Recover the amino acids of this structure.
């Protein structure tokens, strides 16, 4: 059987010493809290250390020197060198005077050292802290430890035991705080770091309250130079520390703060190849002489008490393996995550293009079939891949015939085509195979061209040549080109459906060029102005100033003429309208001021040159029906339409205007 093994080495240093209540290497829940072995905080390791200097940096660390013998609660100032950390009132207890009744009833006398101890309440809204100035500052980045005796008991407000002396308090983090200065009496009854950010939590120890003296150690690295410390509850207490009627009370004795360093770090690594029978894990540490224990997912593996461990002895299970090395009363730990992938054969399908080859699992195949590929791994194991090579049959050549009006861009297989022609296009399909597309593209793009007309002479027989012979003719065999001239009434002399026409009146003349091809009609229009003599051109259309704004879909173009009688005649033409029945901009109309007389003709064409609307003899300032966006009573499609307007002005001059209309819904 082939197997693959993946190892992730993750060093884990644990914090605290082994608890006596929980035996940490028997795979049993000895203290009944539902947590077994390394899952129990009691089995958390702090690492193996040696002390550089075990002398305490705390003055009066045994709490035996005092200026007065306490006679009641809240007399911490009697103990030499000790201060109230905040506005709360921790206690100095000494057998020379006052000791809580609960202390005596719980059997905590004699004290671990001498006759004096410190006491503090742990409550949600009343947190008591004992503080002191150090004999010399802690160096920034230095490793230190605070060791002390601690005992806990439930008391009433008068200091007697409550709840028959039985603990209901959950494990709590006894916390050490530090400050660069040595200023106490933080103005709070809660957490000191909430009131003054200069007080920083340096470290903590998770303690299971018990009515007996025990030794605990808080190990930490100084984040800055520390001159003052205070000890007490964490900022957030577990449930059950409300206080009334039963308070959690902690007693401290023999507090020693000293510098230390780690003796060594434990390392573990795999041994041999994963597919070998003797594959296992090995741990090393200096110095030796301690005791070993291996764990699987935090639970002790019985009889695995050496530096090496063979994996098949745990049925080759994947998961997290830990090793704990204990020396004296300290321990250090490391862990390895072992992942064992499934030994099921992996199947991979690939498609083979005609006259080609395809890659699968690092090998190339040029014919269809099912192939077994064995891949050697650096671990010494083999991986099996089943390659299923499927022939991919390409379809015949795809022929595309496209007839369209231009200008246009057509995208086929990431290539752009805009001019007529026959194209051979190679496309890559979703299987990576080449296929062929033949494109027969006909782009019909007529272009109306009109030579600049000369000026219209005087006299009844004067006329001007309108030359549209430069317009683009129909380029395709069988196609047809049509010409249509539009202009003022009776302004054309002779046929209006040829490339050449003659104008006999002033005004605007437009040439509409249509090309037919395969039942498709494409149109282009160009307009010129015929005048008797050269006059000043009309000013450009005004846009963008918001004048005459109709709706969100339309603005009015203002067409102005030279001043007459002190005012400037003008006509206003919308550039879009929306015939959707909402009562706003539903009809396309022309608007004018008193300088305009009447609309002689308004004609509208679609993009193919077909006339869709025409009206005549409607005064500008009267209500005119305009175009409601229908043809023969039916709504037309949205899009661009073209208008031509013939307007008579009050001075008798006839003006012609043309442009685009955007019909939207």
């Amino acid at each position: 059987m082939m197997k693959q093994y993946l190892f992730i080495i993750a060093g884990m240093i644990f914090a605290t010493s082994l608890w006596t209540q929980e035996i940490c290497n028997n795979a049993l829940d000895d203290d009944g809290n539902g947590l077994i072995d390394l899952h129990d905080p009691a089995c958390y390791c702090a690492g193996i250390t040696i002390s550089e200097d075990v002398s305490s940096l705390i003055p009066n660390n045994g709490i035996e020197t005092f200026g007065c013998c306490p006679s009641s609660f809240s007399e911490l100032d009697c103990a030499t060198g000790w201060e109230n950390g905040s506005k709360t009132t921790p206690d100095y207890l000494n057998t020379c005077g006052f000791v809580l009744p609960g202390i005596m009833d719980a059997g905590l006398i004699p004290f671990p050292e001498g006759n004096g101890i410190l006491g503090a309440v742990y409550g949600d809204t009343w947190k008591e802290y004992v503080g002191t100035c150090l004999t010399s500052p802690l160096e920034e980045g230095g490793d230190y430890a605070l060791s002390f005796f601690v005992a806990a008991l439930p008391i009433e407000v008068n200091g007697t035991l409550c709840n028959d002396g039985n603990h209901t308090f959950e494990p709590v983090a006894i916390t050490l705080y530090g400050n660069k200065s040595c200023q106490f009496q933080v103005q709070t009854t809660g957490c000191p770091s909430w009131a003054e950010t200069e007080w920083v939590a340096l470290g903590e120890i998770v303690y299971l309250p018990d009515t007996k003296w025990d030794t605990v150690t808080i190990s930490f690295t100084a984040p800055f130079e520390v001159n003052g410390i205070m000890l007490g509850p964490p900022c957030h207490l577990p449930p059950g520390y409300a206080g009334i009627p039963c308070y959690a009370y902690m007693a401290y004795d023999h507090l020693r703060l000293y510098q230390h360093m780690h003796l060594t770090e434990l390392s573990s690594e795999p041994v041999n190849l994963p597919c070998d029978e003797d594959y296992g894990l090995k741990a090393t540490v200096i110095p030796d002489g301690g005791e070993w224990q291996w764990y699987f997912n935090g639970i002790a593996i019985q009889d695995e008490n050496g530096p090496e461990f063979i994996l098949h002895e745990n049925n080759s299970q994947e998961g997290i393996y830990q090793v704990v090395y204990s020396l004296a009363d300290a321990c250090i730990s490391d862990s390895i995550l072992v992942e064992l992938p499934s030994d099921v054969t992996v199947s991979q399908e690939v498609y083979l293009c005609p006259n080609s080859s395809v890659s699968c699992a690092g090998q190339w195949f040029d014919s269809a079939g099912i192939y077994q590929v064995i891949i050697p791994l650096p671990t010494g194991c083999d991986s099996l891949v089943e390659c299923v090579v499927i022939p991919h049959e390409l379809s015949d050549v795809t022929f595309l015939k496209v007839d369209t009006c231009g200008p246009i861009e057509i995208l086929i297989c990431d290539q752009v085509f805009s001019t007529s022609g026959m194209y051979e296009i190679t496309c890559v399909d979703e299987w990576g195979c080449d296929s062929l597309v033949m494109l027969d593209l006909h782009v019909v793009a007529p272009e109306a061209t009109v030579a600049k007309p000369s000026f219209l002479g005087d006299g009844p027989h004067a006329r001007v040549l309108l030359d549209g012979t430069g317009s683009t003719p129909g380029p395709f065999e069988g196609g047809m080109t049509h010409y249509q001239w539009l202009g003022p009434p009776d302004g054309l002399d002779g046929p209006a459906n040829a490339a050449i026409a003659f104008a006999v009146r002033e005004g605007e003349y437009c040439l509409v060029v249509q090309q037919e091809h395969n039942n498709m009609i494409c149109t282009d229009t160009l307009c010129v102005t015929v005048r008797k003599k050269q006059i000043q051109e009309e000013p450009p259309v005004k846009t963008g100033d918001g004048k005459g704004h109709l709706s969100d879909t339309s603005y009015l173009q203002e067409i102005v003429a030279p001043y007459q009688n002190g005012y400037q005649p003008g006509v206003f033409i919308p550039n879009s309208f929306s015939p959707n029945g909402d009562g706003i901009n539903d009809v396309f109309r022309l608007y004018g001021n008193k300088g305009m007389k009447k609309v002689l003709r308004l004609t509208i064409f679609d993009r193919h040159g077909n006339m869709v609307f025409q009206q005549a003899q409607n005064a500008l300032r009267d209500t005119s029906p305009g175009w409601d966006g229908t043809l023969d009573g039916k709504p037309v499609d949205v899009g661009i339409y073209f208008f031509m307007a013939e307007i008579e002005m009050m001075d008798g001059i006839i003006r012609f205007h043309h442009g685009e209309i955007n019909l939207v819904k």
